[in-house]
Specification:
Strand order of the largest sheet: 9-8-6-3-4-10-11
Number of helices: 9
Number of strands: 15
Structural class: alpha/beta
């Protein structure tokens, strides 16, 4: 099973259950919507000319759109480059981009941006049924590239160390998008619900945990250390999410 297949595996059983929720916007991404958008946007990327190994710059913040953008690129056979500038076949952004900082054939945006096509233009009636079994999938800040095989294997190892169940609610208070993506990936493999905190603080996380009946929080070391002590809330240092990848 490939990296994106692992993340989509719970979609048939979880259906319209929430996969990712954003505190800032109130947006909710269900498991069914995730699988549908990823496979159809991947087909759209291929229709636009994306070839195996082509790089796509992804400049999207943590939230409901990040996993859709990255996994659509990977499922289409491309490499999602998490950056705001550079050279690639396409770019996917949330709400802005600097034309002088990127050299791409086309820009797609989740929000209205002059000079960019809407991301929804990629989503047609046809879904891409099968993604790549191997090959590069993500390039993170600093240029390190991870392939489908290593990302899938790391998810399996994480699942044995950080046990999460389908009834868990996980607060993601992490500091950067790739770590946020790994939290979402891990939770979605089992059907759990990730809540993306907005400008997380000690008080904010405690309030959010109470409101959402959270069972786990993943946060930077200093915040995680101060959150320890709650008998119900499991606290994970965000470094544990990516340490096995050498980050």
């Amino acid at each position: 099973m490939t990296w994106t297949e692992l993340v989509m595996a719970a979609a048939p059983t979880q259906g319209d259950q929430p996969a990712v929720s954003e505190v800032r916007t109130g947006e909710v991404l269900s498991y069914a919507a995730f699988a549908r958008r990823v496979t159809r946007a991947a087909a759209g990327l291929q229709r636009q000319g994306l070839r195996f190994g082509d790089e796509v710059i992804v400049d999207v913040p943590q939230g409901t759109t990040l996993p859709v953008a990255v996994h659509a690129v990977a499922w289409a056979g491309g490499v999602a480059v998490l950056a705001a500038s550079g050279t690639g076949r396409f770019m996917i952004t949330q709400r802005r981009y600097d034309p002088a900082a990127v050299k791409v054939d086309r820009v797609f945006s989740f929000e209205s941006v002059p000079g960019a096509k809407p991301f929804t233009a990629l989503i047609g009636d046809r879904a891409l049924e099968y993604g790549p079994l191997a090959g590069p999938a993500v390039a993170v800040y600093g240029g390190q590239v991870f392939d489908n095989h290593s990302l899938a294997g790391d998810l399996r190892r994480l699942a044995t160390r950080l046990v999460i169940g389908k009834d868990d609610v996980v607060i993601s208070a992490v500091s950067e998008p790739f770590r946020g993506l790994r939290v979402i990936d891990l939770a979605m493999t089992v059907g759990a619900h990730v809540v993306i905190a907005h400008e997380p603080s000690l008080v904010g996380c405690r309030v959010l945990a109470h409101e959402r009946r959270a069972t786990m929080v993943v946060a930077p070391y200093d915040l995680a250390r101060r959150l320890l002590g709650d008998p119900i809330l499991r606290v994970v240092d965000e470094r544990a999410i990516v340490s096995s990848l050498g980050l």
